[in-house]
Amino acid sequence: MKLPTGDWGEHLRWSLTDPEARAALARQAQAMAGLQVWYDNDGLWDWGEPRREGPRHLQQMVDQYAAVGARGVVWGCGNNLAWSYTPRVQEWWCDRVTSTEPGLAHLAARQRQWRACGLAPLDVVADRALSHRLPILAGFRLNRYFVSHGVESWFGTHPQFVLPACYCPLAPIQQSLDLAAAEVRDHLAATALDVVAHYPVSGLHLELMRAIPFFAPGEPEKRRHLTDFLAQLRAGLDRLEQRRGQRLELSLWSGTETNYQVIRRGLFPPEFMALEYHGIDLEGWIAAGLVDRLMLSCWSGGPGRRGAPVNLLRWVRAAHGTQTRILGEFDNVTEVPDPPSLAEAERHLREVASLTDGLYLFNTPPASLALLLDNAAPTTPSHA
């Protein structure tokens, strides 16, 4: 059976309705449960009308995670500042759409429908996750990866904190804030912590190394500023823990130099592959106890980007005996075109799972992954 064409949103819609998808999910549930998987949905797909099928689709999505024994869920609240679909704490994304592209216009109209009913998708996702006793983290990207999705008003009123486009490798589609400014760190921290305060999530998840940079190239205190920002978030989570009466996690998704050179080849200039270029100090953050979970990039299924070498031992060793758990990250595993690539993906999944504390699957619906594992599994030849 062939996988559906299109992006991961198409995969997810297919997996909610197709009987063969449900059969593949059932066949693989036991094997996938042994992989210790966290699933991440970045939130930008059309769930449907909020008064009709939208909430049901979101609930079915979380039900799939639970059915395959997921260990946790990350729900992408959006880019920095203009959080997607979190009306109690920030501006609605649909109010800041600057593009006339039909797909974005459709999503903006859909958001307005959700707002009109006084409901955000995160309400539905978090409640369903809790019903399955699944921890759920509110995820966000530090910088605006797609400016066409709308710019929050804080950008307009504080242009002095926006890095020049020449510093951003994806310019003009990226807009980056300068974390060297204490005002920027305070604003981002307040926004993120507000989400945790208003929703029954289990903590925060920050996406690094996709929306880089965070500083001007010559900024001498990059590492200190970024470490201070994480410490600020950790302190805020500690305060909320006292009110909530439960542990609140701080999770990070990062690349590593070697893996990212393979996965993102051609997207960034070579110097952007170095963690220190961005002030990222994974070993220091592990040692300081700032990070509960560290997701490290291992694979991207996009065009021209395949599995990277599994060179995670450095981080696994650094985390040994600490509170930090290391997970291998796989991005869009469903976007692999042929049986050899499927087999390669399966080998990577199982190798990384055996080396680390688990897997972190970004935009990879469980039913599609189940079918990939089915298709990649070697067949036993029949004998006459």
Report on this model:
The protein has a single domain (8-375), classed as Glycosidases (TIM Barrel). Helices cover 41% and strands 12% of the residues. The chain is built from 13 helices and 8 strands. The chain has helices at 8-17, 19-33, 53-67, 102-116, 121-131, 153-157, 182-198, 222-244, 257-263, 282-287, 313-319, 339-355, 366-376, and strands at residues 37-41, 72-78, 136-141, 203-207, 249-254, 293-300, 325-331, 359-362. It has an 8-stranded parallel barrel, surrounded by 6 helices. The chain starts with 7 loop residues before the first helix and ends in an 8-residue tail after the last helix.
Task: Name a few traits of the molecule.
41% helix; disordered C terminus; 12% strand; TIM Barrel; alpha/beta; single chain; 8 strands; 384 residues; 13 helices
Strand order of the largest sheet: 1-2-3-4-5-6-7-8
CATH superfamily: Glycosidases
Shape: globular
Q: Whole-Å distance between the termini?
A: 26 Å
The name CATH uses for the topology is: TIM Barrel
N to C succession of SSEs: HHEHEHHEHHEHEHHEHEHEH
Structure classification = alpha/beta
Q: For the report, how would you describe the main beta sheet?
A: 8 strands, parallel, barrel
Low-confidence regions: 379-384
User: How many helices in DSSP terms?
Assistant: 13
Question: Mind telling me the C-alpha Rg?
Answer: 20 Å
Topology:
Elements: H1 8-17, H2 19-33, E1 37-41, H3 53-67, E2 72-78, H4 102-116, H5 121-131, E3 136-141, H6 153-157, H7 182-198, E4 203-207, H8 222-244, E5 249-254, H9 257-263, H10 282-287, E6 293-300, H11 313-319, E7 325-331, H12 339-355, E8 359-362, H13 366-376
Parallel strand pairs: 1-2, 1-8, 2-3, 3-4, 4-5, 5-6, 6-7, 7-8
Helix pairs in contact: 1-2, 2-13, 3-5, 7-8, 12-13
